[in-house]
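Narrative summary of target 7.
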Amino acid sequence: MTLRVYNTLSRRKEEFVPREGNEVLMYVCGPNVYGPCHVGHAMSYLVFDVVKRYLQFSGYHVKHVQNFTDIEDRIIETANSEGVSVSDLAEKYIARFLREMEALNIQPATHYPRATEVIPKIQEIVQGLIEKGHAYEVDGDVYFRISSDPDYGKLTRQSTEAMRAGARIEVDTRKENELDFALWKAAKPGEPSWDSPWGKGRPGWHIECSAMAMQFLGDQIDIHGGGEDVIFPHHEDEIAQSESYTGKQPFVKYWLHNGLLRPSAEQEKMTRHLGNFISCEEVLKKYNPDAVRLFILSSHYRSPVTWSEEFILSSDRGLQRLRAALQPAPAVGDTGGDELLEATEEARRKFLEAMDDDFNTARAIGHLFDLGRIVNQARDAGVPASALAASQERLQDLAGVLGLTLQETRVAADPAPFRDLATAIRNELLAAGKTELAESIPEAALAEKPTGEAEPLIELLVSVRSGLRAAKEYQLADRVRDGLAHLGIITEDGADGSNWRQVTSSQA
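Modeled conformation, tokenized:
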């Protein structure tokens, strides 16, 4: 199949053909860095990470730009309320964002421009729009004149009246039209500002993305991505100002928008402004990044997703089957290799067919699990080592398209509750006079440790549980198992002894 993508502008799936050869120019709206990134943000960045990964897998070279909005009303308000500078607040949350995206295995963008870095480009565009009659200045503010653009509204496909009814418009009698939007804002006392032909001021929000896209990608690009909540007014305004300035259409060939993450079925979206969010930091402390990724990608990217801890834990359990498929074969036979390779290629074909259908990760994941099942069955049945290795390599490659590492990533955990559990078991053994068993938990091992250094205590408790079972102290052994499970550690017994895996830091 040929890759087809759903274009918000045309409201249909279109064959994907980049403007120039195999180079794809992609711009994705980044965060406003006035606060921490939440899992709703992460959903969008995971989606476009997979878009980029699949394009690269398909042989395209992707130049990816994702911005940081580091000057805007909310970041100014937050900086003032916290008594810090706007730049210091931005630096704090940009550094945190990059750490969290790396932890979620999101590939870095080619460029991460900041709005404050492209002020000259912004002023160039604003001046050009004024000269062409698309913008006007009032008391140091500059507004885009929507009446000058006959195509205004083509992305949302709404009339001016409908857009006016649905927009939250700040009343300003100086504007020619209520929907005219700010390109440049006159400086207010205490705000960061830059010299301009219209006096000291700062850019409006919408113009920032146009300037960053043009400076790093050019006047016309292939893909512009973002959440569906910024279709209007942000992306509508980007089109108007960009095409009016350059005189070139289209500014963007394919507009891709992801659905939103809902905190619950009753709430439309997760947002910092309403405070109904779960931060990426909290998510990374509790869950395996692969499980978070699998949970989000199990729905089509244009569909809304409702946050569910239960589904994330279910995703984590499902990942165990894929990880098992990558384990070495316990025994190797000499038959069945051809059948395995044929089944592997069929699963791969179906996976790619799903991805070619507007990046249908939900369907692709089903075929990935089919391949995992095929490999697990073949490994258990005994197949030639070369065939098994080839199928496992295919499985790892396809998982990589979705950004799944299939590694048992252990997230940072607080060692205190594990130390408390070990101390309680040790004291109970001492009280019962079972000194030898109690000494399997040395006092030195119970010393306080920094957050994130829980793993040695977990290993100790798993070992102690094995010792208790060997001594037929089954009740205490079960208490260790249950205590670990309550802290998100699942113990698994096999022929090679006891192992453990982490599900969540708070519950199993």
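The chain has three domains: 4-262, 287-401, 416-502.
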